Amino acid sequence: MSQPPALDSARSLLEDVASLLDHHPAQKDPKPGKPPGPGYGPLLRAGTALCYTAWEVYVEEALLESVSWLLDNRSPEDLPEALRTWVADQNGDPWAFVGDSWRAAVLGLVRSRLEGDAQGRFGFNTASVSGVEGLYNQVLGYSPLRAIRWQKKSNAAVRKDISTLVEVRGEIVHRGTTPGGLSLGGVRSWADFIRRLTEKFDAGLVEFRTGIPSGSKK
């Protein structure tokens, strides 16, 4: 069975966030004189961590998806120059492989870049602004993140929010604490932010791959 599209993977994780918030015993924020329900802190931490996970999983799967599409739809000489250069630097001259073996070799190199290889090299550790842009610029020569914006959300604000989410997730994962300003409404806002972010990012990748602006008809 083929792997689901990257955007579907992100949406599935965000649905898990919504389900967690809707069905957990501590599904309401505390009020004066009314303390939070049992498990309120863990619920906030789990929901926020899942929002970040949806973003990181999307970033990794979308890169593999994009490279796979390019390999299936472009001849070696028509691939992005950055991809050709990066692959050649990693593995000599894979374009000289017999038959279609070069396609599998290139995808294997991208997977190693994301997951790390047997020598302990590479590996994508954090979906920060610099991490995502560095990864995509290195492999594709293009990062959709540089232009993402939407109504009442500038590109600078998008980048700032990504950095904040990475920081909050780090506090949760590495310290096991619940950031003081976090609430159920805040977790829902993070989920909505990641939904919009991945949709815009995906539209940028589709346009990059096909050369057709998002929303345009052939």
From TrEMBL:
Start-end of Basic and acidic residues biased regions: 21-32
Source superkingdom: Bacteria
Region (Disordered): 21-40
Protein name as it appears in the record: RiboL-PSP-HEPN domain-containing protein
Organism annotation: Mobilicoccus pelagius NBRC 104925
